[in-house]
Amino acid sequence: MGNVIDGKGFADRLSEQLRVEVDALKANHNLTPCIAVVLVGDDPASHVYVTNKVKRCQQLGIESREHRLPVDTSAEALLALIDNLNHDAGVHGILVQLPLPKHLDENAVINTIVPEKDVDGFTLLNTGALAVGQSRLVPCTPLGSLMLLKDQLGDLSGLNAVVVGRSNIVGKPMASLLLQENCTVTIAHSRTRDLPAVCRQADILVAAVGRPRFIQGDWIKPGATVIDVGINRIEEEGRKRLVGDVDFASAIEVAGAITPVPGGVGPMTIACLMYNTVAAAKAAHGITD
Ligand code: NDP
Fold first, then answer.
1. Report field, pTM of the whole predicted structure over 0.85
2. What is the residue range of 90's domain?
3. What is the pLDDT of residues 166-192, one digit of tens each?
4. Which residues line ligand 1 (CB under 6 A)?
5. Which of 37, 48, 114, 147 has the fewest Cβ atoms within 10 Å of its own Cβ atom?
């Protein structure tokens, strides 16, 4: 029976460290890290995410500025707002909550953010920087997943890592980070042949598929470390539940360690957003300690 990796506990400890660091930045440098959060439209899940992010900022002493815009906001108005935030020296991080309404071009909007304030790490420049091993602001979910892996395993050098999923926000940056850690990395996706056999090679298996309980226990190498990024809302026996992309019940019988859903990668994502915001604020002021 494998260990359950306590992502929530790790995220709470990281948040506490950041709270202390934010206090010190205020006291020693008169600097309050600040993130601007931009939300367009009325998607209920997005409003919940933004509210949670703002709440977490308050807990850590990070300033947050909310821009909740109507669903019919024009591209010109949104780009003008981002341009203002880019030039506002009091704002260190800019987050545009995705998805955007269909009439807005997500790539164009994201790439308007200056890379120094791109705390989601989604701009082309930060994506490229990560790919060539010069990363600064790294996407939060893969960054949080890597922190959990290093906490669990220490040195990852030489381990076989399989990432199932090749999205720009999770799978690809996760693979880049693992490669930087000297893992031997395989990226699997919907066209991969014999996925169970590919997964069985993995010392580290990262599931970012978006399919409830897709990866089965008998696809897992005994003793492997499993990071379940998936967040799937399902209804089961009349109850709404959150489940991952891994079938937790069968996987924990085989894995050495596994993240639960909820309470695994999810809390790390928001903690890493705070981490990136503090890093961006420090970088803007040339603070290196
Ligand atoms: P995407 O839908 O963008 O990507 C899913 C990936 O899974 C694609 O690369 C797709 O392959 C692959 N895939 C789909 N079906 C199969 C299959 N049958 N076999 C193998 N691969 C398959 O999802 P995201 O990367 O955005 O998210 C993945 C999961 O992570 C979701 O559950 C999402 O909710 C969750 N998530 C969680 C976060 C957190 O904070 N914990 C943050 C972000 C996401 P192909 O490219 O070939 O289509």
1. yes
2. 30-114
3. 999 999 999 999 999 999 999 999 999
4. 141, 164-167, 169-171, 188-192, 195, 208-211, 229-232, 245, 265-266, 269
5. 48
